[in-house]
Amino acid sequence: AGEGSGPVPADGTGPPAPERVLFPPTFSVSEIKNKQRRHFMFLRWKQQQRKEKLALKKRRRKEREALGDKAPPKAVPKTIENQRVYDETTVDPNDEEVAFDEATDEFAPYFNRQTVPKILITTSDRPRGRTVRFCEQLATVIPNSHVYYRRGLALKRIIPQCIARDFTDLIVINEDRKIPNGLVLSHLPDGPTAHFRMSSVRLRKEIKRKGKEPTAHVPEVILNNFTTRLGHSIGRMFAALFPHDPQFIGRQVATFHNQRDYIFFRFHRYIFKSEKKVGIQELGPRFTLKLRSLQKGTFDSKFGEYEWIHKRREMDTSRRKFHL
């Protein structure tokens, strides 16, 4: 038997056996050659880590309760978001220049309730079934939107027809290998036009524990974390897709949440369980957008003037630098 592994004398005079250490200080799971054994030991190590973390959390909570009002303030954990590099274009709500730009930009008639949004949703040429179903479900989320399936018609010919029929916005869903992978949003008649990369598309039938089909009520719109001038413009583009006066009786919410320059879209219905508790049901669809470019005017891939283009080699040098 190894040192310290022998039995303790019945009279209790001998030294107590040391507690068994799960992993020695110099032990490394990667040294185990057997794959199954290595995986098992790794799971045990993770379980031990969780137990230690939970015990530390409980001990600190008890210490704070014992100190009462004299307890020191809680430390704020460091995250990529709160360590973000300061952007000089961050919008101040009280900035007069920003207020003047908002009062005179292309979206001002919508926010002044002079125009009612009317959206045309179309696809790339010859779309497949998944893209078609996504467009149909997107039309149930955005009120007063119409789906048109392109049949070889160029986008430059579609835009004048949209303007003649009083459409305020054009949404184009592009696909690759039968999967929606891009979204072009063009505000009519004078722009701007934003091009997004689309990913993580989930249709309604692919969402677990989803609610019933959405109703025709105008949803509320929530825009989160669009803090820079560029993000402010993108947020106003999304807001201009929905009528300005939501119908709260429908209890439906469309959320555009920006996090690290990824825009997550979710569509929910909230339910009042009691006076203090509120539950939510996701209705779908859901998707994620990443801004590629913002162009002045309507869509023009050759001669368009770009306000902003995402350049990976120049802009993605720091993980803590965000543009929206």
From TrEMBL:
Record-level GO BP terms: maturation of 5.8S rRNA; maturation of LSU-rRNA
Main localization category: nucleus
Segments of this protein annotated with the region Disordered: 1-24, 52-75
Gene Ontology CC annotation, any one: nucleolus
Claim: rRNA processing is one of the keywords in the record: yes
InterPro entries documented for this protein: Brix (IPR007109), IMP4/RPF1 (IPR044281)
GO MF annotations in UniProt: rRNA primary transcript binding
Keywords per UniProt: Ribosome biogenesis, rRNA processing
Localization per record: Nucleus, Nucleolus
Comp. bias regions, Basic and acidic residues: 63-72
Brix domain residues: 117-300
PANTHER family assigned to the protein according to its UniProt record, in alphabetical order: RIBOSOME PRODUCTION FACTOR 1, U3 SMALL NUCLEOLAR RIBONUCLEOPROTEIN PROTEIN IMP4
Cited function: May be required for ribosome biogenesis.
Protein name: Ribosome production factor 1
Taxonomic classification: Eukaryota, Metazoa, Chordata, Craniata, Vertebrata
Gene encoding the protein: Rpf1
